[in-house]
Design goal:
Elements: E1 11-18, H1 25-33, E2 51-57, E3 60-66, H2 76-91, E4 94-100, H3 108-117, E5 124-129, H4 131-135, H5 141-153, E6 158-163, H6 172-179, H7 200-215, E7 225-232, E8 242-251, H8 254-261, H9 266-283, E9 286-295, H10 303-308
Helix pairs in contact: 7-9
Bound molecules: guanosine-5'-triphosphate and magnesium ion (MG).
Magnesium ion binds near residues 25, 38, 47 and 66.
Length: about 325
């Protein structure tokens, strides 16, 4: 099919970051955009929605889709996360398959991802993240990276491989350089002042969830969902001098509620303190944050609750 935009001198395309949970997809996006658009934690299954983020270069625009990690789902929540990630693959101009520098074998989650990637026609680029971990070790670093490349190259028709460290901000220019030839000619999708396709309110909810993930353990982090009940910004309400946010943290059981609140409310207070600082940086306003914790029994197993919490997005169309 001929491209009606051929010769306009601008290229723009959609690039999906896909991979198993915890490989650093969201960290990479944040570093590329030099802005915290997507939350990060050391726990798997941090990202729950496909988040589109815009990278503007000279004469080109890349719309990155950060996706939830593809894993073997145990819950309806898990299934919704995997479906969201898979749906974005076909529409893209390029899929960046993110893996880790320390991968020595292909695990069951990557087996699943490889099976899917073999069925999509979208070109594939291997992105090996966390190279800092391997290169810090004496000797053998380069050989180890070559081994990771061969491991995946043997299984997939890759267009290339790029070695990066989201943590150290290394290899990112090479990554953008490897993506550019895959961007079709065409006008930009977004104005150049847009960074992310989600409202401020969504990002605020995600930041609150990130702090809850950081400060809780075992099953609790996965059982937390955040809903913003009220969001009144001085941008919309000029009579206010602070951004007022009232949010509810949903958990699945009473015991989890006690954990999130903590002794004499200490943990909830700390979640609120850290979230407030990050939201103030992003919004550019002083923030008053009012946090509540409620039990919504087994919400991760309920289609209706997943919809209500904005996770099962196909239900909203
Ligand atoms: N050493 C090292 N750690 C990294 C790097 N990039 C990310 N991490 C860490 O890896 C963990 C997971 O990062 P995320 O960005 O949340 O990973 P993700 O792939 O988005 O995870 P899901 O959203 O759960 O699919 C965090 O603890 C990050 O700090 C890196 O380049 N080097
Ligand atoms: Mg993520």
């Amino acid at each position: 099919m001929s491209n009606p935009f051929a010769g306009i001198g601008f290229n723009a395309g959609n690039v999906v970051l896909a991979g198993r949970p915890n490989v650093g997809k969201s960290s990479l996006i944040n570093k590329l955009l030099d802005y915290k658009v997507s939350i990060v934690s050391e726990k798997p299954q941090t990202t729950r929605n496909v988040i589109r983020c815009v990278y503007n270069g000279d004469g080109f625009q890349i719309v990155f889709a950060d996706t939830p990690g593809i894993h073997l789902p145990k819950h309806k929540l898990g299934r919704a996360l995997v479906d969201a990630a898979l749906e974005s693959l076909e529409e893209a101009d390029l899929v960046c398959y993110v893996v880790e520098a320390e991968d020595r074998t292909i695990g069951p989650e990557d087996e699943e991802i490889i099976a899917v990637l073999r069925t999509v026609r979208t070109p594939l680029l291997l992105v090996v993240n966390k190279c800092d971990v391997v290169l810090e070790r004496k000797g053998g670093g380069e050989a180890a990276l070559a081994a990771v490349r061969s491991l995946y190259e043997a299984r997939l028709p890759l267009r290339g491989a790029v070695f990066v460290s989201a943590r150290m901000g290394k290899g990112l220019d090479a990554l953008v350089g490897a993506i550019r030839p895959h961007l079709p000619e065409g006008p930009p999708f977004y104005d150049d002042d847009i960074l992310v396709d989600r409202p401020e309110k969504f990002i605020a909810a995600e930041i609150i969830r990130e702090k809850a993930l950081l400060l809780t353990h075992r099953e609790v982090p996965h059982s937390v969902a955040v809903e913003i009940e009220e969001y009144k910004s001085p941008d919309e309400y000029p009579e206010r001098d602070v951004l007022f946010i009232r949010a509810t943290l949903y958990v699945e059981r009473e015991g989890q509620k006690r954990i999130v609140i903590g002794d004499a409310g200490a943990r909830l207070k700390e979640i609120g303190r850290r979230a407030r600082m990050d939201i103030e940086t992003l919004a550019g306003h002083k923030v008053y944050l009012d946090l509540w914790v409620k039990v919504r029994k087994d919400w991760r197993q309920s289609d209706a609750d997943l919809r209500m919490l904005g996770i099962e997005e196909r239900g909203r169309r």
